[in-house]
Amino acid sequence: MRKRIFSGAQPTGELHLGNYLGALKNWVALQTEYESFYCIVNLHAITLPQDPATLRQKTLDLARIYLAAGVDPERSTIFIQSDVPEHAELAWVLNCVARMGELERMTQFKDKGKGEERASVGLFTYPVLMASDILLYQTDLVPVGQDQKQHLELTRDLAERFNRDFGETFVVPDPYIPPVGAAIMSLKEPEKKMSKSDENLNSTIFLLDDADTITKKYKKAVTDSGTEITFDGSRPAISNLLTIYHLLSGKPTKDCEAHFEGKGYGDFKSELAEVTIEFLKPFQERVREYDDDSLEAILKSGAEKASAVASETLKNVYQSMGIR
Ligand code: TYM
Fold it and tell me: Which of 79, 128, 74 has the alpha carbon at shortest distance from 308?
């Protein structure tokens, strides 16, 4: 049997180059080899307040982004999390397996909850819903960016604990975190990751940004002292920009360095803008390709395929626990 992949993204904000280079690019590359499930995790989105009409729209927009990025509905299963109710059901079960202490150690909760009494309980148990997503599909590999590593470790711990206490039930999944591109950094503060929710829009290149906006954002991007354009951990701003150039141009790292030898930051930034615009142009055209009806048909068939696998796993889980 082919090995399985599961991954997903939240339908909040706009997707950016970090999401693409850290995750979606690898989903597309791996879908030929693996049986792949790519989910739009709208139940995760409501762990923070969302406007209902916007959430509904963003959920469909994100499906279009998956397709435009190259996720092939003939090969991969694309579906919306809430269309498969087993995600929420298994999350309840796993909430009874997870421990307060381990969730309290999750850095995402510390960052997003900011220690506030008002943070939702859903935000606290967010990683458990994520474990449920992954384990329902008996997933072997989960392609994600670096920021999801801790959640993947928790997922493995929950699967192992469940298997130990109730008998072999879940495949214990491995993360797939790409060697390059797993953490694309902010253009304004290269010590922070590029993020959908950054208040400074100049920090982030969105996948739907137009050419002019892209050029302006790179112009405003911070650089490091010195003049060299090389991969060098002690010069995080230039390394980050060069990583983006390397991944979007497809040129080997050594060739990128050689190409920019003796050139200034200004030239580098305009070439980086060109490469980005060239890369995003066909992507942005493809986003508009799917009309509502064909999109709904893809999502419906995706939900059916996902349900068949998810219901089987949940049945086994209930059986091993003595739940009728
Ligand atoms: P989300 O929606 O925040 O991000 C989607 C994917 O993009 C990656 N990513 C990045 N990669 C590189 N550089 C960056 N600056 C960057 N920012 C984001 C994320 O690592 C992610 O892979 N919790 C998940 C969604 C989720 C999920 C799952 C993922 C829910 N259930 C099950 C995998 C498996 C999230 O919020 O992703």
Answer: 79
